[in-house]
Design brief:
428 residues, alpha+beta, Outer membrane efflux proteins (OEP), two-stranded parallel sheet, 6 strands, 12% strand
């Protein structure tokens, strides 16, 4: 009985435990990449392209066809059969014929059409694979950006709590001095206003963190009502590499550039496919035909056939289709050059943004040190009855702003580095 009561008590307490868990950047990236609907959609597109590529092997294989037909002559008393009839009497009275034909055919030459279609399908498959890599970089950057923003917002709450604690400490000190008759009523009111402002800023920070956390959870597929939290150490980012090699590395490996290169290859195969219509077709057939007046015909004829086909004139479409395919290739090449130019510009901008963000981190770190020194000095003076409450409150406000800006500059610097890694494709 006692054991049952203890178990019931434990179950009751466990039911009301608010379970919370922390998510590191590595875990967030893993969850986000595994659950991304965009990546899953692209994987299905790649699978479809792969099946289409496999299907292009068919024209290289022989083809086997079976044909059965019933023929009835209308308005004639003689048979339509061209093959064996049992006797002349049947020939005169039969108007029915049954035909059964089996054909094994193989195309010997088609002007390169089969090869062009197969290579074009392979280029399309490779293009979709490169698109997947590009989408993966986008998803990865979004996860990193949301993580650093959530983590930074979380730390900003801590800094604003410190600011509120400092404002509350100043208010209590001023109130105590007022009760002793040393401070003025206006000093108390001013310190109380600053404490209330700090409380309002703290509430704003909490709401901003909730929004940042909701976005972060959405990207890693956690329900908003689950008590997940961004966990990690927000520190200054470090870039390992040479700026001079970023563009060359991007030219060799960036998905957007490789994707357009595969598109150029695909269009070249389309051009070759269109050009193949100017060449003859050579087909071979091994054919067996059975035909007579019975449902299961006995008359048999075997033949080996070589077909040579060349359209001497079929309009002007062949010429203009080739010209259009050539223009598509030139347009795709121009787009490739434009993508290279845009990538180079994006990398240069990302480098400037990252360098600026790192300078901001250093400046705000120095500003925090100076503001901290100034606040401690003014607080010590005011505590012993010297100094001005207005200067003290302003120094406390400057210190709180400097600490918050330092955190903002650090998480923005991490986002800037993540963006530089994205545009230069450094995560391969």
């Amino acid at each position: 009985m006692k054991l049952r009561v203890v178990l019931a008590f434990l179950s009751f307490n466990i039911f009301f435990i608010n379970i919370s868990f922390s998510i590191t950047l590595e875990e967030a990236i893993k969850r986000g990449l595994e659950g991304s609907y965009v990546l899953k959609e692209q994987e299905d597109i790649i699978r479809s392209s792969r099946f289409s590529y496999i299907a292009t092997i068919d024209p290289y294989l022989p083809r086997f066809d079976v044909q059965s037909s019933y023929i009835r002559s209308i308005g004639s008393g003689t048979t339509v059969s061209n093959y064996s009839i049992l006797n002349s009497e049947d020939l005169e009275r039969s108007r029915d014929a049954f035909n059964f034909t089996s054909i094994i055919s193989y195309r010997v030459f088609d002007g390169g059409e089969r090869y062009a279609k197969r290579k074009g399908a392979y280029s399309l498959l490779e293009r979709e694979r490169e698109r997947f890599r590009g989408l993966r970089e986008d998803v990865l950057f979004n996860i990193k950006s949301a993580f650093y923003m959530a983590l930074g917002s979380k730390i900003i709450i801590e800094k604003r709590k410190q600011a509120f604690d400092s404002a509350e400490k100043i208010y209590k000190l001023t109130l105590g001095r007022y009760e002793e008759g040393v401070a003025k009523k206006s000093d108390v009111l001013q310190s109380e206003v600053r404490m209330t402002s700090a409380r309002i800023e703290l509430l704003k920070a909490e709401k901003e963190y909730e929004k940042a956390l909701d976005e972060f959870k959405s990207l890693i597929f956690i329900r908003p009502d689950e008590n997940g939290d961004a966990e990690g150490i927000l520190k200054e980012p470090i870039f390992y590499g040479s700026y001079d090699n970023l563009f060359e590395n991007a030219l060799r490996s960036k998905p957007e550039i490789l994707l357009q290169g595969k598109e150029v290859e695909r269009l070249m195969m389309v051009y070759r496919e269109r050009k193949s219509t100017w060449f003859p077709r050579i087909d071979t057939e091994l054919q067996q035909t059975r035909q007579d007046r019975r449902f299961f015909p006995d008359g048999r004829s075997d033949a080996f056939i070589v077909n040579f086909t060349f359209p001497l004139f079929d309009g002007i479409g062949r010429y203009y289709n080739v010209k259009g395919a050539a223009s598509d290739i030139q347009a795709a090449k121009q787009k490739l050059e434009e993508i290279k130019r845009s990538v180079k510009l994006d990398i240069e901008k990302a480098i400037v943004d990252y360098e600026l963000s790192m300078k901001n981190v250093k400046l705000y770190t120095e500003l925090v040190r100076e503001a901290m020194t100034n606040f401690n000095q003014l607080y010590g003076e005011y505590k012993v009855g010297k100094g001005d409450i207005v200067a003290l409150l302003q120094s406390e406000k400057d210190l709180a702003s400097a600490m918050e800006n330092q955190i903002v500059s650090i998480y923005k610097a991490n986002i800037s580095l993540a963006y530089l890694e994205k545009v230069a494709y450094l995560n391969r």
